[in-house]
Specification:
The protein has about 240 residues and is mainly α. The chain is built from 10 helices and 2 strands; from the N terminus they run αααβαβαααααα.
């Protein structure tokens, strides 16, 4: 039997960085990470994580001092514990959410980019947003003046007027629920989420509101048309 010398592999941070910089992620992986990212920062999901940290599992376990927290398995680089300490359950949730964000960020940072992929990502964000009940409800907050809407209908027709109204109400609604997401980002010490992300959420909310108002408006027209036809048939009968 011949002995073969295998040199011990040493960790090299620069080599790892070069690997991630030069190796791009596939389109489906990027879109999947975009959908995960949208779900993560949706207001319903953010509110659920907030309740877990403030009133649920985050209130359980022993209190870890700042020193104990840094030595624990829950510590992640950049996260800190208050002077009075941190509950073990809270520290665990911080670590789990940190790891989720890190996984998503790693995939998105290796995206090959491009207009086509960017457009597909925006569509994926819309899909993820429309599946959130708070997002859908916020798109119908009545902030658009009725007289102004009637003027738009007479000038542009129902479809375009609904689209304009939907964009306005969707943007305002997204802005109103944004403090939920910002507040949870602060609790999780998520420094990657900033005002630019809030602006993007308002933009997505506007596009979502425009689509929902037009879509539900057309459904309403169909129902109203069929109802009117039924009434006419009943009168004739």
């Amino acid at each position: 039997m011949v002995d073969v010398y295998v040199p011990e592999l040493e960790y090299n941070q620069n080599r790892q960085d070069q690997y991630f910089n030069s190796t791009k992620t596939g389109t489906l992986d990027v879109l999947g990470a975009t959908l995960e990212d949208t779900f993560y920062y949706n207001p319903t999901n953010a509110l659920d994580r907030m309740l877990q940290m403030q009133f649920g599992p985050g209130t359980t376990g022993n209190i870890l001092s700042p020193e104990q927290y840094k030595e624990s398995k829950y510590y992640r680089e950049g996260l800190t514990a208050p002077e009075e300490g941190i509950k073990e359950g809270y520290a665990q949730l911080l670590a789990e959410n940190y790891d989720k964000r890190a996984k998503i960020t790693q995939t998105l940072s290796r995206s090959k980019g491009g207009f086509a992929l960017g457009s597909a990502q925006f569509g994926t964000m819309l899909l993820g947003s429309v599946l959130d009940p708070i997002n859908v409800a916020s798109a119908f907050i009545p902030v658009f003046p009725t007289a102004r809407y009637a003027h738009l209908v007479s000038r542009f027709g129902k479809t375009q007027a609904r689209a304009i109204r939907g964009v306005v109400e969707g943007s305002v609604g997204a802005t109103l629920v944004e403090p939920i997401v910002l507040g949870q980002a602060a609790l999780e010490q998520d420094e990657d989420y900033n005002l630019l992300d809030s602006f993007l959420n308002a933009t997505v909310g506007g596009a979502l509101g425009g689509g929902l108002h037009v879509g539900f408006g057309r459904i309403s027209d169909i129902i109203e048309k069929r109802s009117h036809k039924t009434k006419q048939e009943a009168v004739l009968t």
